[in-house]
Amino acid sequence: MASTSQTATAPLTSGLRTAVVPAAGLGTRFLPATKTVPKELLPVVDTPGIELIAREAAQAGATRLAVVTAPRKQGVMEYFERDELLEETLAARGKTDQLAKVRAVNGLVDAVAVDQDRPLGLGHAVGCAESTLDDDEEFFAVLLPDDLVLPAGVINEMVKIREELGGTVLCGFEVPESEVSNYGVFDIEQSEGGVGGVAGEDVKKVRGMVEKPDAADAPSTVVATGRYLLDRSIFDALRRITPGKGGELQLTDAIELLIEEGHPVHVYIHHGGRHDLGNPGGYIRACVDAALQDDTYGPSLKTWLADRLGQEN
Ligand code: G1P
Q1: Which residue ranges does the record assign to the Nucleotidyl transferase domain (predicted)?
Q2: Is the CB of 252 under 6 A from ligand 1?
Q3: Candidates 122, 148, 171, 250: which one to mutate for ligand 1, based on the most atoms within 8 Å of Cβ?
């Protein structure tokens, strides 16, 4: 395990300290680019996905980003290191805007590398990060970098829910029935209204969870998106599961085990947007979406797109 030298400056207000980011995947949906460029470094407009994740984690109060990487993806950790020569050059040339952009990632969080030497699944990746937590850390966040959840801030909401209800808090999304088999699917208690007062009816108790079921067997159309607030007891559960869907150690199965043993698990149903940065189709949408809201690129992109789409008819 290696830690970057910068000091974390985010205020520790939420009790959340560590955010785990599983980033060891091969990026097969994004070949050939991912042959040499980790998908977490592909930019949304000009900012790599890993920096968006680091910002989101820091905003939720996390001071440590445990990045689970594979030996061939060292570029992800290098991104958190300072480039003094580049900074000096930009400063000497008076390029203050670019200098601020280059420095923005430093000081957001303390990025810590966690090696996952074999691709044994999301559950295995999360388990690898256990040693990065302090002994008295009772819970931590997991942010999947493929999932861009909009607007950012859902983890903050989940932290508030945990403060009220304890246990584990997950993030759910309604999807069409035809898409459920791509996700972990929740079996939720269909109570009137919600549980607890924080987020009203968008908080539900989870009765069970199943990884990528056939549509016919799915308990609901509410699926897990890539934001988790996990109780530390998940590590013990992860040690006790056996390979599940796809022969991999599934985080979903460890959560299901906790539920079976009476551990409280709630889902916060998020109504915002979401992009899947892990494949070209979702990534292009994310880029267009972000660029349309960008002061520099938005206006001309909008004009060009309208013109371009006009030619399609
Ligand atoms: C993972 C999880 C799945 C979850 C999904 C969200 O699947 O295993 O439960 O719904 O992330 O993006 P993956 O997309 O890595 O196959």
Answers
A1: 19-288
A2: yes
A3: 122
Domains and their CATH numbers in the chain: 14-145 (3.90.550.10), 152-271 (3.90.550.10)
pLDDT tens digits for 251-272?
Answer: 999 999 999 999 999 999 999 9
CA-nearest of 119, 39, 104 to 76 is 39
- Residue 191 has a pLDDT of 66
* C-alpha–C-alpha distance, residues 251 and 15, integer Å: 23
pLDDT on residue 192: 57
- For 62, phi then psi, to 5°, come to -65, 140
**pLDDT at residue 5 in the model:** 38
Residues of the chain with pLDDT under 50: 1-12
H, E, C per residue of 121-133:
CHHHHHHHCHHHC
d(CA 219, CA 184): 10
Testing ligand 1's pocket by substitution, the residue of 116, 142, 144 carrying the most ligand atoms inside 8 A of its CB is: 144
Residue among 222, 191, 194, 193 at smallest CA distance from 209: 222
**Does the C-beta of 168 come closer than 6 Å to ligand 1?**
no
Residue 9: its pLDDT value, please? 44
CA 144 – ligand 1 centroid, Å: 8
Q: How far is the CA of 244 from the centre of ligand 1 (A)?
A: 13
pTM of the model: 0.92
Ligand 1: centre distance to CA 226 (Å): 7
